[in-house]
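Protein Record: Sequence and Backbone Structure Tokens
======================================================
Tokens: labelled as protein backbone structure tokens, with as many entries as the chain has residues.
Task: work out the structure tokens from the sequence, keeping to the layout shown below.
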Amino acid sequence: YQRRVRGVVSYCVDNRTTLQKHKQTSDIYTMNVTFDEYGRPFIILREQQQKERLHGIEAHKQHITAAKTISNIMKSSLGPKGMDKMLVSQDGDVTVTNDGATILEKMEVEDQMAKLLIELSKSQDDEIGDGTTGVVVFAGALLEQAELLLDKGIHPLRISRGFELAADIVIKYIDTIADTVSFSPTNLEPLITTVMTSLGSKIVNRYQYKMAKLAVEAVMSVADLERKDVNLDLIKIEGKVGGKLEDTTLIKGIVVDKDWAHPQTPRQVKDARMVILTCAFEPPKPKTTHSLPISTVDQYNEAYKREQEYFTKMIKHIKDSGANMVICQWGFDDEANHLLLANEIPAIRWVGGVEIELIAIATGARIVPRFEEITPQKLGKAGLVKELTFGTTKERMIVIEECSNSKAVTVFIRGGNKMIIEETKRSIHDALCVCRNLIRDNRILYGGGSVEIAASLAVAKAADEIPTIEQYAVRAFADALDAIPLALADNSGLPAIQTLADVKYRQVQEKNPRLGIDCMNVGTCDMKEQFVIEGLHAKRQQILLATQVVKMILKIDDVLKEGSV
């Protein structure tokens, strides 16, 4: 093969005009022969060039194919009849979920464009908390339509511009069809009804009302209605395997996954005045390596006496402040444990930093870094601190209730196994986010694909008034909006295209933008009657985020890898 290549190169040098004759052979087709500024020939293999560089329409198509693959995986998880995915990690940990952000986060993806969709879902989860599956499905549908427009020869930037125009039309249109939900601290039913929609596709949908009510009560406990703000960091979600899902409760206080430091400690403390320590309950230690040689009994007794003095001084600081309970971030040895019990001071040790902060917020305590700084003003107050036991197991948890500042609450989840607990945590998180969004902006839309169908009709109508080539992209955007109701119908076992056509026809004839896909076979397509509701802010964010990511993907037309030609 090398002799043939050298022959071809020497022939090219001697007789360049007859090079075309040799292109009839397969060897010449797999390479490019070119010459430098001195007339010396060198060869570029075409296959090698293709492996290292993607350019133009080929780059666009590869990016779109990768993103569509992710979208198609997520499509079957959309809606109340969506399927779950089982994800098995390298360590053998199993996760069963239909939460879009969780599925994409745990997927191992190599392609950079596919990673953009994963980031898209994460952005939706961070900003809104719900709609993570729908935003990926919609972005995939937009890219599918973009591929068809590229095949027609339309420039990617014109497509991006058309998608941007269509997104603006949709945002303005959904503002006109939005409703408002009115609620108050004494009337939470409208909020509960709205939050139930986000739980309809989750594993907890059997107890949809109970979980929605629990989530709303948790948010209202920490909400500042005057500022329309909710700090979700004040809501702790804790789970323990065992019991039934309906045993899940809301605790107006903090649950700590620890037990009392000493087994003979009383099981509950009333009118607790607690000191929160972030220093170790033990004598000070030098930071350098040291040794203390002891050769006689008197020396040992002296060392023991000094250690006792340290512990006695620590206990005195606690008792002088009026505290009757200790929560420590670090551990303490058996001597300290015995002295605390002897002085009737219950203690909890090895409490995490996040839990320490929540306990301090709930009880009004100040975190104390040194024993010398303990004062009565820095103590936290709680009406009751008790220990919970679970069935026949030895597992225990501490519950701090009736706190002086009841802002911090805990959602305590029970379930048959760890997978159910984790999926319920994700479901409750989505419900909390939906409720928070409604407090910030109480405008709502009706779900079931009704918004997408109505917006699709509005965008298709507006496309006829656009004189430039962008009208093709605007129509394609309208077709992409249909992907959501099509996926809902398909996942519900309905004939997708026929169902969509029927609902579109009825929306136009009845001029009712609330008509959507009857996924639950209730008998009516009016989503207002079915109480299928979603927040306006969430839907607006979905449209904008998906459009931005698609524009970003369409602007990339060249991929140069390291060492490329």
